Amino acid sequence: MSVADDKTVVREYFNSTGFDRWRRIYGDGEVNKVQLDIRNGHQQTIDRVLDWLKADGNLSGLSICDAGCGVGSLSIPLAEAGAIVNASDISEKMVSEAKERAKAVLGDRAGNVQFSTQDLEALEGRYHTVICLDVLIHYPDDKMADMIAHLASMAESRLILSFAPKTLAYTLLKRIGEFFPGPSKTTRAYLHREADIVKIFQQNGFTIARKEMTSTRFYFSRLLEAVRS
Ligand code: SAM
Protein backbone atom coordinates (compact mmCIF):
# COMPACT_ATOMS: atom_id res chain seq x y z
CA MET A 1 0.00 0.00 0.00
CA SER A 2 1.34 3.46 -0.82
CA VAL A 3 1.74 6.03 1.94
CA ALA A 4 -1.13 8.03 0.41
CA ASP A 5 -3.42 4.97 0.63
CA ASP A 6 -2.26 4.27 4.17
CA LYS A 7 -3.06 7.85 5.11
CA THR A 8 -6.49 7.75 3.49
CA VAL A 9 -7.33 4.60 5.45
CA VAL A 10 -6.07 6.16 8.70
CA ARG A 11 -7.94 9.44 8.11
CA GLU A 12 -11.18 7.65 7.27
CA TYR A 13 -10.81 5.37 10.29
CA PHE A 14 -10.28 8.30 12.71
CA ASN A 15 -13.24 10.12 11.14
CA SER A 16 -15.57 7.12 11.67
CA THR A 17 -15.33 3.97 13.86
CA GLY A 18 -11.87 4.92 15.11
CA PHE A 19 -13.16 8.29 16.24
CA ASP A 20 -15.90 6.70 18.37
CA ARG A 21 -13.51 4.14 19.83
CA TRP A 22 -10.63 6.50 20.63
CA ARG A 23 -12.77 9.39 21.82
CA ARG A 24 -14.15 6.98 24.44
CA ILE A 25 -10.74 5.55 25.35
CA TYR A 26 -9.29 9.06 25.66
CA GLY A 27 -12.25 10.22 27.77
CA ASP A 28 -13.52 9.55 31.27
CA GLY A 29 -16.80 7.74 30.60
CA GLU A 30 -17.48 4.03 31.02
CA VAL A 31 -15.43 1.67 28.84
CA ASN A 32 -14.68 -2.03 28.80
CA LYS A 33 -11.71 -3.51 30.68
CA VAL A 34 -9.37 -3.60 27.71
CA GLN A 35 -10.16 0.00 26.79
CA LEU A 36 -9.68 1.05 30.42
CA ASP A 37 -6.25 -0.57 30.40
CA ILE A 38 -5.32 1.29 27.20
CA ARG A 39 -6.70 4.55 28.67
CA ASN A 40 -4.56 4.17 31.78
CA GLY A 41 -1.45 3.26 29.78
CA HIS A 42 -1.89 6.22 27.44
CA GLN A 43 -2.41 8.56 30.39
CA GLN A 44 0.93 7.38 31.81
CA THR A 45 2.65 8.37 28.56
CA ILE A 46 0.97 11.80 28.68
CA ASP A 47 1.93 12.27 32.35
CA ARG A 48 5.55 11.33 31.67
CA VAL A 49 5.86 13.93 28.93
CA LEU A 50 4.24 16.56 31.16
CA ASP A 51 6.59 15.62 34.03
CA TRP A 52 9.66 16.01 31.78
CA LEU A 53 8.55 19.37 30.44
CA LYS A 54 7.49 20.73 33.82
CA ALA A 55 10.76 19.57 35.41
CA ASP A 56 12.67 21.72 32.89
CA GLY A 57 10.98 24.78 34.41
CA ASN A 58 10.59 26.72 31.14
CA LEU A 59 7.17 25.59 29.93
CA SER A 60 5.48 28.97 30.15
CA GLY A 61 5.65 30.59 26.71
CA LEU A 62 7.49 27.63 25.14
CA SER A 63 6.44 26.96 21.51
CA ILE A 64 5.29 23.38 21.01
CA CYS A 65 3.97 21.51 17.99
CA ASP A 66 1.75 18.53 18.92
CA ALA A 67 1.61 16.58 15.65
CA GLY A 68 -1.27 14.07 15.50
CA CYS A 69 -2.86 15.60 18.60
CA GLY A 70 -5.93 13.33 18.71
CA VAL A 71 -8.53 14.75 21.09
CA GLY A 72 -5.99 17.06 22.73
CA SER A 73 -4.92 14.78 25.61
CA LEU A 74 -1.47 16.41 25.68
CA SER A 75 -2.12 19.78 24.00
CA ILE A 76 -4.74 20.85 26.53
CA PRO A 77 -2.65 20.34 29.70
CA LEU A 78 0.33 21.92 27.92
CA ALA A 79 -1.75 25.01 27.11
CA GLU A 80 -3.02 25.00 30.68
CA ALA A 81 0.60 25.07 31.88
CA GLY A 82 1.26 28.16 29.73
CA ALA A 83 2.90 26.65 26.64
CA ILE A 84 1.98 28.04 23.20
CA VAL A 85 0.75 24.99 21.34
CA ASN A 86 0.11 24.30 17.68
CA ALA A 87 -2.05 21.15 17.69
CA SER A 88 -3.03 19.32 14.52
CA ASP A 89 -4.39 15.99 13.39
CA ILE A 90 -5.23 14.39 10.05
CA SER A 91 -8.78 13.63 11.32
CA GLU A 92 -11.16 16.59 11.40
CA LYS A 93 -13.40 14.73 13.87
CA MET A 94 -10.53 14.30 16.33
CA VAL A 95 -9.67 17.99 15.93
CA SER A 96 -13.24 19.17 16.50
CA GLU A 97 -13.47 16.99 19.64
CA ALA A 98 -10.13 18.45 20.82
CA LYS A 99 -11.46 21.99 20.27
CA GLU A 100 -14.59 21.21 22.32
CA ARG A 101 -12.53 19.76 25.16
CA ALA A 102 -10.16 22.73 25.12
CA LYS A 103 -13.06 25.19 25.24
CA ALA A 104 -14.56 23.34 28.21
CA VAL A 105 -11.42 23.44 30.37
CA LEU A 106 -9.04 26.18 29.27
CA GLY A 107 -10.96 29.39 30.03
CA ASP A 108 -8.64 32.38 29.64
CA ARG A 109 -5.83 30.07 28.48
CA ALA A 110 -7.82 28.98 25.41
CA GLY A 111 -5.69 31.29 23.25
CA ASN A 112 -2.59 29.22 24.11
CA VAL A 113 -3.59 26.44 21.70
CA GLN A 114 -4.45 26.63 18.00
CA PHE A 115 -6.00 23.56 16.39
CA SER A 116 -5.99 22.60 12.70
CA THR A 117 -6.76 19.60 10.54
CA GLN A 118 -3.53 18.70 8.76
CA ASP A 119 -1.35 15.83 7.69
CA LEU A 120 1.71 16.20 9.91
CA GLU A 121 3.99 15.83 6.91
CA ALA A 122 2.47 19.03 5.47
CA LEU A 123 3.03 21.05 8.66
CA GLU A 124 5.25 24.11 8.45
CA GLY A 125 6.93 26.38 10.97
CA ARG A 126 9.59 26.10 13.67
CA TYR A 127 8.93 25.20 17.27
CA HIS A 128 11.15 24.84 20.31
CA THR A 129 9.71 21.36 20.82
CA VAL A 130 7.92 19.01 18.43
CA ILE A 131 5.95 16.15 20.00
CA CYS A 132 4.32 13.22 18.24
CA LEU A 133 2.76 10.60 20.52
CA ASP A 134 1.46 7.20 19.44
CA VAL A 135 1.22 8.15 15.75
CA LEU A 136 4.12 6.06 14.41
CA ILE A 137 1.91 3.00 14.85
CA HIS A 138 0.26 4.17 11.60
CA TYR A 139 3.55 4.37 9.71
CA PRO A 140 5.30 1.40 8.10
CA ASP A 141 9.08 1.23 8.57
CA ASP A 142 9.86 2.40 5.04
CA LYS A 143 7.81 5.60 5.53
CA MET A 144 8.97 6.55 8.98
CA ALA A 145 12.37 8.07 8.10
CA ASP A 146 10.77 10.80 5.96
CA MET A 147 8.11 11.43 8.59
CA ILE A 148 10.64 11.79 11.43
CA ALA A 149 12.94 13.92 9.25
CA HIS A 150 10.04 16.28 8.59
CA LEU A 151 9.24 16.58 12.30
CA ALA A 152 12.96 17.11 13.02
CA SER A 153 13.12 19.95 10.47
CA MET A 154 10.49 21.83 12.48
CA ALA A 155 12.18 21.26 15.86
CA GLU A 156 14.61 23.97 16.97
CA SER A 157 15.72 22.13 20.10
CA ARG A 158 13.83 18.99 20.87
CA LEU A 159 11.76 16.17 19.40
CA ILE A 160 9.67 13.82 21.55
CA LEU A 161 8.24 10.68 19.97
CA SER A 162 6.49 7.59 21.22
CA PHE A 163 5.96 4.33 19.39
CA ALA A 164 5.03 0.70 19.96
CA PRO A 165 8.36 -1.12 20.25
CA LYS A 166 9.11 -4.10 18.05
CA THR A 167 10.37 -6.66 20.50
CA LEU A 168 9.87 -10.38 20.15
CA ALA A 169 7.22 -10.44 22.88
CA TYR A 170 5.11 -7.66 21.37
CA THR A 171 5.46 -9.06 17.88
CA LEU A 172 4.05 -12.35 19.15
CA LEU A 173 1.27 -10.59 21.05
CA LYS A 174 0.31 -8.65 17.95
CA ARG A 175 0.33 -11.82 15.91
CA ILE A 176 -2.09 -13.56 18.24
CA GLY A 177 -4.33 -10.52 18.06
CA GLU A 178 -4.15 -9.30 21.64
CA PHE A 179 -2.23 -6.17 20.91
CA PHE A 180 -5.17 -4.38 19.32
CA PRO A 181 -8.19 -6.16 20.68
CA GLY A 182 -11.82 -5.35 20.01
CA PRO A 183 -13.93 -5.16 16.87
CA SER A 184 -12.53 -1.86 15.57
CA LYS A 185 -8.97 -2.92 14.86
CA THR A 186 -9.42 -1.91 11.26
CA THR A 187 -6.18 -0.01 10.69
CA ARG A 188 -2.84 -1.72 10.35
CA ALA A 189 -0.56 -1.39 13.35
CA TYR A 190 3.17 -1.04 12.78
CA LEU A 191 5.70 -1.76 15.52
CA HIS A 192 9.18 -0.23 15.24
CA ARG A 193 12.69 -1.09 16.39
CA GLU A 194 14.11 1.45 18.79
CA ALA A 195 17.56 1.19 17.14
CA ASP A 196 16.05 2.21 13.78
CA ILE A 197 14.43 5.28 15.31
CA VAL A 198 17.58 6.30 17.21
CA LYS A 199 19.52 6.05 13.93
CA ILE A 200 17.04 8.32 12.16
CA PHE A 201 17.33 10.83 15.01
CA GLN A 202 21.12 10.80 14.64
CA GLN A 203 20.92 11.26 10.86
CA ASN A 204 18.87 14.40 11.55
CA GLY A 205 21.31 15.79 14.12
CA PHE A 206 19.55 14.67 17.31
CA THR A 207 20.72 12.59 20.27
CA ILE A 208 18.63 10.85 22.92
CA ALA A 209 18.27 12.74 26.20
CA ARG A 210 15.54 10.89 28.14
CA LYS A 211 13.65 7.63 27.74
CA GLU A 212 10.61 5.99 29.30
CA MET A 213 8.62 2.83 28.70
CA THR A 214 4.96 2.41 29.49
CA SER A 215 3.55 -1.07 29.44
CA THR A 216 0.23 -2.25 30.72
CA ARG A 217 -1.56 -5.39 29.58
CA PHE A 218 -2.69 -3.99 26.25
CA TYR A 219 -0.75 -0.75 25.84
CA PHE A 220 2.94 -0.53 25.02
CA SER A 221 4.69 2.71 24.27
CA ARG A 222 8.35 3.62 24.19
CA LEU A 223 8.93 7.33 24.75
CA LEU A 224 12.09 9.05 23.53
CA GLU A 225 13.22 12.63 23.94
CA ALA A 226 15.88 13.71 21.45
CA VAL A 227 17.72 17.03 21.50
CA ARG A 228 19.81 18.76 18.84
CA SER A 229 23.39 17.59 19.28
N1 SAM B 1 -1.16 11.90 19.91
C1 SAM B 1 -2.50 11.70 20.44
C2 SAM B 1 -2.44 11.21 21.83
O1 SAM B 1 -1.45 10.57 22.22
O2 SAM B 1 -3.42 11.41 22.57
C3 SAM B 1 -3.35 10.77 19.55
C4 SAM B 1 -2.84 9.36 19.34
S1 SAM B 1 -3.91 8.38 18.30
C5 SAM B 1 -3.45 6.72 18.63
C6 SAM B 1 -3.20 8.61 16.71
C7 SAM B 1 -3.62 9.92 16.04
O3 SAM B 1 -2.74 10.18 14.96
C8 SAM B 1 -5.03 9.93 15.47
O4 SAM B 1 -5.76 11.02 15.98
C9 SAM B 1 -4.81 10.07 13.96
O5 SAM B 1 -5.83 10.77 13.29
C10 SAM B 1 -3.47 10.78 13.92
N2 SAM B 1 -2.69 10.64 12.67
C11 SAM B 1 -2.35 9.51 12.02
N3 SAM B 1 -1.61 9.78 10.93
C12 SAM B 1 -1.47 11.13 10.89
C13 SAM B 1 -0.82 12.04 10.00
N4 SAM B 1 -0.17 11.61 8.92
N5 SAM B 1 -0.88 13.36 10.27
C14 SAM B 1 -1.55 13.82 11.36
N6 SAM B 1 -2.20 13.02 12.23
C15 SAM B 1 -2.15 11.68 12.01
Structure, explained:
The protein is α/β, with parallel strands linked by helices and 229 residues long. It has a single domain, classed as 3-Layer(aba) Sandwich (Rossmann fold), CATH 3.40.50. Helix content is 43%, strand content 22%. It contains eight helices and seven strands, in the order αααβαβαββαβααββ. Strands 3-2-1-4-5-7-6 form a seven-stranded mixed sheet, sandwiched between helices. The radius of gyration is 16 Å and the shape is globular. The mean pLDDT is 92. Bound molecules: S-adenosylmethionine (SAM). S-adenosylmethionine (SAM) binds next to α1. S-adenosylmethionine binds next to α1.
Q: Would you identify the CATH H-level superfamily?
A: Vaccinia Virus protein VP39
Mean pLDDT: 92
* CATH topology annotation: Rossmann fold
Q: Based on the structure given, which CATH architecture is correct?
A: 3-Layer(aba) Sandwich
CATH class: Alpha Beta
One letter per element, helices H and strands E, the order comes to: HHHEHEHEEHEHHEE
Could you tell me which ligands this complex binds, including any ions or cofactors? S-adenosylmethionine
Structural class, from helix and strand content? alpha/beta
The termini sit apart by 35 Å
Question: What's the number of extended β-strand segments?
Answer: 7
Radius of gyration: 16 Å
Number of helical segments with 4 or more residues? 8
Strand count, sense and barrel status of the largest sheet are: 7 strands, mixed
Q: Per DSSP, what share of the residues sits in E-state strands of 2 or more residues?
A: 15-25%
Shape: globular
